Structure formats: structure tokens, C-alpha cells
Amino acid sequence: MLKKIRTEMGHFKSQTHNFQILILTNMVYALVLPVIDIFVAAYIMRNSSDTSKVVIYQLAIYTGIPLTFLLNGFLLKHFNIRKLYSAGMMLSGVSMIIMMSLKTLDLTGIGIAGITMGLSFGLYWSNRDYLALAITNDENRNYYYGLETFMYTIIAIAIPATIGWFIQSKTGEAEKHTAYLIITGIVFLITITASIVCFRGSFENPTQKKYIFFKFHSLWYKLLSLATFKGLAQGFLVTAPAMLIFKLLGEEGALGKAQSIGAVLAAIIIYLLGRFSKPSDRIKIFSAGLVLFALGACLNGLLYNKTGVIVFLLLLLIAKPLMDLAYFPIQLKVIDIVSRIEKRGEFTYILNHEAGLYLGRLLGAGTFLVLYYSISEDFALRYAIGIIALLQLCSVYISKNIIAEGNLFSPDEPVINPKVMSEVTEKLV
Fold first, then answer.
1. For 164, 225, 346, 396, which has the most beta carbons within 10 A of its beta carbon?
2. TM segments (predicted)?
3. CA distances (Å), origin 39, targets 77, 91, 222, 228
4. Residue-wise pLDDT tens for the chain (429 aa)?
């Protein structure tokens, strides 16, 4: 066992310095992601008991993200990418401070906190995606995202359970509120630490200064459609587990325990897939994630009880990293190809990609809100996830098309490769 661990450590150390620093930065920041994703939603639920406010908060976040992607393109002309990346991480702590300082959770306060968190995520993800593209290639991207997802999943075991236990150890609403304040302070300190680690890298800004275009290659439009389907689930899936657990399981302690079920197994599977899978395996990995997500969502809709929630969370813990492990390398490979064809900077596509995600997020969150206000809260929680999960199965066909068309192009030059033309045509048919 120790020999295998040394081998894996050696493989990590064989990567470039910037590869290692980016992974370490994201690992530190990953300590706060479960807090942001789950317990902010739990805080809103605890203090308002209104699931629609959770979704509205999420919509505010998703509105802030694309605006900040645009702003980041301008800021990159004047500031080093490390400063912007660090600012994004630290703003997440500021957003939590705003939320905890609200005396009443009205829509205005929730909206301000959500927009601030959106600004944080926009700076974080736009710069993180560019750096991941810049320091990796198609051969080591499975490993990069497998390792990153492995760490995220391991952290997702300890953090929700620990925070859930900490909150539940307090008695009375005043003590529980104080617990949330303490957690917020710790989050802010962790974001500062992640920023310090980030500055150990020698990351460079994108060279091209123009990022906004309105016409793209057909391959890019296919990826945008795939991004829209991905955004469907993101629309409220981040906060859906918290809402389901509060409705059907009860408290934050149950929330932490439920999120930890199956996480160790999921982490090991994802790491091994990232370490040893090939680019040609991405469709299989992506399809497996989509099917597991759809299965869990449908079972939750059919049962809609404690068992259904636990099964859904267990399958989601495996499905989400599987989908991400395949999706991000597909996205970056398309950017590699299309940026060469159109002779544009890579950040152009990172910025434009957010538009596809945002459209999907609006549709996903909108689906929940329409069902919530037109029928009932229980109906929305029970069936919205299943509807979206089944729609996402279309992503299998779209991703096959993308990879097949992408294989037509030489990895080094943006020209059709005649050697694979006939083979790819057969696959498309």
C-alpha cells in the first residue's frame, strides 16, 4: 500500500510546478465549498423555512457569475490573474458575512448576498478554468480533474459531517446562529490561506485582449448546447440536497451524515478513473454519471421519503464527479481546437461558455419556481429534479457528436484529418 502511495505521489510530483500549485490552491479552497454549497442554503431554510428563497438566492448567484466573467475579461488587462483568482476566493467569505449580518432574510438582503457570492464565483471560476486550460493538455486532463475531484469528494466527507455536528451541538436559536458566525469566520481565514498558496505559482495572463465575439465555429455551438444541459441541473441542484434534507430528514446533523454516505468509495473510483482512463473513455464516464443521476432523481420522486433522499444523495455523490471528470476535458479540448481554427484567445471561449451554462441555470431554477408557485413546494421538490435529470440524458448524444467532430481535426493544426474522416462518419451515423 505504501509503495502505491509513493508511486502516486511521484506521479504528482512529475507534473509541472504550476500544475501542483493550482491543485493545492483548489484543495485548500475546497474546504469552504461544502459550506457555501450546503450550509448557506441550510441557514436560509432555518431562518425562513421558505425553499423559494433558497432558489432565489441561487438565481442571484448565477446572475452575478456571467456578469463577473465579463468584468474579469476587462480586469485581466490591468491586474495579474493571481490577484483576481485570490480576490474571487476571498469574496466568498465576504458574501457569507453579509448573509449572517442580515437581521431578517428579506429578498433584498438575500439578493445582495447572492450577487456578491456570484461575483466571487465569477472571478474564481473564470480564472480557474483558464489556468486549468493553460497548464494541462488533453493527455493529462483526466488525471488533473480526477485528482481534483478526488480531493473535493474526500473533503465532502469530513466537512459537512463536522459542521453538522458543530451546529447540532448548540442548543437554542441564538447559539446556533453563533455557530454559523464562527463557521463564517473560519471560511474567511481559509480563503486567505488559499490565496497565499495561489501566489506561489507563476501564472500568466491571457495574451489576447479582445474576448467578446458573436459568431463561432459549429463545433463550439454544439458545446454550448451541452453547457446548457449541464446548467439545467446546476440551476438548483446545489441547494436541492439541503432543501430535501430539511423537509424529509430534519436537521443539519442529518445533512452532514447524509452527504458523507458513499463519499469514500466515490473518491477512490474517481481518482482511479482520472489516473488510468484515456481521452477515449470520456463518453462512457459521462454516460455513467448521467444515468446514475437520472436513476437517483427518479427514485427520489417515486419514494419522496427519507430512504429516497439518502439514495438520491448517495448516487449524486458518485454521479456528479463522474460527469465533471468527463465534461471539463471535453470542454477544454474543444477550446483547444476552435481557438486554433478561429485564431482567438482561449479566454474568449471560457467567457462565452458561461452564457450556455447561465441559460441552463435559468431554465433549471425556473422549472422549480414554476412548479413551486403553480402547484406546491412538495411537488416541485419531488419532481423538478427528475424532470431535469431525464432531460440531461440528451447530453449523451450531444457529447458523442462533439467528440466525433473533434476527432476530425489534427491535435496540432486546425485542419481536417483525412485518416479518421471515414471512421468518424460511421460513428456519427
1. 164
2. 21-44, 56-75, 84-102, 108-125, 145-167, 179-199, 219-242, 254-273, 285-303, 309-328, 349-373, 379-398
3. 36, 17, 35, 26
4. 788 888 888 999 999 999 999 999 999 998 888 777 666 777 777 777 777 787 788 888 888 888 898 899 889 988 999 999 999 998 888 888 888 787 778 888 888 888 888 899 899 999 999 999 999 998 899 999 999 888 887 887 777 777 777 877 787 778 877 888 888 888 889 989 999 999 999 898 887 667 888 899 999 999 999 999 999 888 766 667 767 766 776 655 555 555 555 667 778 888 889 999 998 899 999 999 999 999 999 998 898 888 888 888 888 888 888 999 999 999 999 999 999 999 898 999 999 999 999 899 888 888 888 888 888 878 888 888 888 999 999 999 999 999 988 877 755 555 444 444 444 445 444
Q: Which residues of 392-429 are buried (b: 16+ CB within 10 A; e: fewer)?
A: beebeebbebbbbbbbbbeeeebeeeeeeeeebeeeee
Looking up cell 450546503, which residue turns up? 38
Q: Are 137 and 332 spatial neighbours (Cβ–Cβ below 8 Å)?
A: no
Residue 376 CA to residue 387 CA, distance in Å, equals 16
Q: What is the CA radius of gyration of the chain?
A: 21
Tell me which amino acid residue 235 is: G
Residue 338 lies in a domain: yes
Residue 34 lies in a domain: yes
Residue 371 is placed in which grid cell?
412548479
CATH of the domain at 410: 1.20.1250.20
Task: In whole angstroms, give the CA distance from residue 303 to residue 284.
Answer: 28
Report CA torsion sign: 3, 9, 10, 11. positive
- State how far the Cα of 69 lies from the Cα of 423, in Å rounded to an integer: 38
Residue 255 lies in a domain: yes
> Would you mind telling me the total number of residues written for the chain in this entry?
429
Phi, psi of 114 (to 5 degrees): -65, -45
Grid cell digits, residue 78: 490591468
**Residue ranges making up the domain that contains 116:** 13-201+218-428
DSSP 416: B
Q: How far apart are CA 86 and CA 192, in angstroms?
A: 8
Q: pTM for the complete prediction?
A: 0.81
The Cα-based distances of 135 to 18, 139, 324, 326 in angstroms read 7, 12, 18, 18
Domain tally for the chain?
1
205 within 8 A of 81, measured Cβ to Cβ = yes
CB 84 within 8 A of CB 127: yes
